[in-house]
Specification:
Keywords: Autocatalytic cleavage, Hydrolase, Protease. One of its GO terms (biological process) is proteolysis. About 35% of the residues lie in helices and about 20% in strands. It is built from 10 helices and 14 strands. It has helices spanning about 20-25, 60-80, 85-95, 140-150, 160-170, 185-195, 200-205, 270-275, 280-290, 295-310, and strands at about 5-10, 15-20, 40-50, 120-125, 130-135, 155-160, 215-220, 230-235, 255, 265-270, 310-315, 325, 330-340, 345-350. The strands form 3 sheets. Strands 6-5-4-8-7-3-13-14 form an 8-stranded mixed beta sheet. The protein has a 4-stranded antiparallel beta sheet with strand order 9-10-11-12. Strand 13 (about 330-340) and strand 14 (about 345-350) form a beta hairpin. Helix 2 (about 60-80) packs antiparallel against helix 3 (about 85-95) and helix 9 (about 280-290) packs antiparallel against helix 10 (about 295-310). The protein is globular and about 60 Å long. The relative contact order is 0.18. Bound molecules: aspartic acid (ASP). Aspartic acid binds near residues 234, 254 and 270.
């Protein structure tokens, strides 16, 4: 008798159902359920903006390429060994936070007052637990602190001096704010101030080129147990004032993970990503409209954000290990690596 046996692989991934036994029955063998190789995947970004070949030297491009590959490979190695998506996204983001090339951690941009305030968040798609920090000034790895908030506090978001007191209590590495200083970001602040002129001029702020508003890093991953996770870390916007907080630490705006739909990390003009609730909107379309991540991601980035002037992009991974990285700017530093495949790194639109 031909018997169809359905094996459901647990781990939160309802869609991974494998029909086994049919073939075995046909050839007269005893059906032995064999689980297919579990999918896993990681994607990362290092910010979106006016990134074109014309504005890049080959040497600089090689540096970005190497660092993105290092980060995606570090996360991939964890997943390949059966580690969690949470560990993979944390480690990948930390590689980028430690590099002066990106606007997060070491390479954070300057505020209007000439110092650095960092934001970060992380979300566990299996449990809907999340942790976030905003406006921290002395924490070397804001993503590590966001994870501490998620795992070792009863809160979701901590800000400023309170967040730093918690970091100290948890034994995280603290640095002077000057650790985040860099010549190139300082010069960017001076250029930005010149372009804005009067800081009260709202239109001048809105007309700033995208590059002053972009540069966050992030990672999303699916592990072999079918669990999704997302993490985002940033120095925010060049010249930000009055304790401005962007989308990166806002769960649902810059970061979202849900095992039943997708995991997302965003980069772009944070004010728009907050108002349009970008990360959660994309995953909600996947969950409730049954859209795939390609349809849902493109709809929000190109049909919702672009018409209203919201520039930026997202990285998305779904429970099958598919990856999509749509953006409506000239470029987005990005990389992905799916089970058994080599890393793919890209910078420009085409
Ligand atoms: N989204 C970040 C913010 O608005 C900036 C960025 O992605 O570069 O703070």
């Amino acid at each position: 008798m031909i018997q169809s046996q359905l094996i459901t692989i647990t781990g939160g991934n309802m869609k991974r159902i494998i029909g086994a036994g049919v073939l075995a029955g046909l050839v007269g063998l005893t059906a032995t359920p064999v689980a297919a190789e579990e999918p896993f995947a990681i994607a990362i970004h290092g910010g979106a903006g006016t990134i074109t070949r014309a504005t890049m030297t080959p040497a600089r491009e090689a540096e970005y390429h190497a660092k993105l590959k290092e980060a995606v490979d570090a996360g991939y190695a964890i997943l390949e060994q059966g580690g969690t998506s949470l560990d993979a996204v944390t480690v990948a983001v930390q590689v980028l936070e430690d590099s002066p090339l990106f606007n997060a951690g070491r390479g954070a941009v300057y505020t209007w007052d000439g110092h650095h305030e960092l934001d970060a968040s992380i979300m566990n798609g299996a449990t809907a637990e999340a942790g976030a920090v905003a406006s921290v000034t002395t924490v070397k790895s804001p993503i590590a602190l966001a994870r501490e908030v998620m795992e070792n506090s009863v809160h979701v978001m901590l800000t400023g001096p309170g967040a730093e007191a918690f970091a100290k209590q948890q034994g995280l590495e603290l640095v002077e704010n000057s650790y985040f200083n860099s010549k190139s970001r300082y010069e960017a602040l001076q250029r930005m101030k010149k372009q804005v002129g009067n800081p009260q001029d709202k239109t001048a702020w809105q007309q700033l080129p995208a590059d002053y508003k972009h540069g966050t890093v992030g990672a999303v991953a699916l592990d072999k147990d079918g669990n999704l996770a997302a993490a985002t870390s940033t120095g925010g916007m060049t010249g930000k004032r009055w304790g401005r907080v962007g989308d990166a630490p806002i769960i649902g705006a810059g970061t979202w993970a849900d095992n039943e739909s997708c995991a997302i990390s965003a980069t772009g003009h944070g004010e728009y990503f907050i108002r349009y609730h970008v990360a959660a909107d994309i995953c909600a379309r996947v969950k409730y409209l049954n859209q795939d991540i390609f349809t849902a991601g493109d709809a929000v980035i190109f049909d919702v954000l672009e018409p209203v002037g919201g520039t930026g992009g997202v990285i998305i991974v779904d429970p099958q290990g598919q990856v999509h990285m749509p953006f409506n700017t000239e470029g987005m530093y990005r990389a992905k690596r799916q089970a058994g495949q080599a890393a793919e790194v890209a910078i420009y639109k085409n």
